[in-house]
Amino acid sequence: MAEATLSSKNQIVVPKDARAAMGVKPGDKLLVVVHDNCVLIMPKPKSVAKALRGSMRGVYPKDYLRKERASWD
């Protein structure tokens, strides 16, 4: 497990192994997600659409869309 120290300017250095695992380099944007007392740092996707593509697959029943559209008539 890597360790980082918060500087007097409230900055941290992302450890080398974490940068390598995320595949980021200097100048890349990172997303910081805070939930309760947990912080998640991840690379910002170049395309949000590509990052989300397929993420909802299997959430709705197979015929859900067809039945929903049929209800509009």
Strand residue content: 15-25%
**Low-pLDDT sequence parts:** none
Terminal residue distance = 58 Å
Number of helices: 3
Rg calculated over all Cα atoms: 20 Å
- Global morphology: elongated
Largest sheet: 2 strands, antiparallel
**Helix/strand class:** alpha+beta
Structural write-up:
The chain has one domain (16-70). The protein contains three helices and two strands. It has helices at 16-22, 48-52, 64-70; strands at residues 30-35, 38-43. A hairpin with a 2-residue loop joins β1 and β2 (38-43). The longest helix is centred in the N-terminal third of the chain and has 7 residues, at 16-22.
Walk me through the topology.
Elements: H1 16-22, E1 30-35, E2 38-43, H2 48-52, H3 64-70
Antiparallel strand pairs: 1-2
Describe the structure in brief.
The chain is of the alpha+beta class and 73 residues long. It is 26% helix and 16% strand.
Index terms:
single chain; 73 residues; alpha+beta; two-stranded antiparallel ribbon; 3 helices; 2 strands; 16% strand; elongated
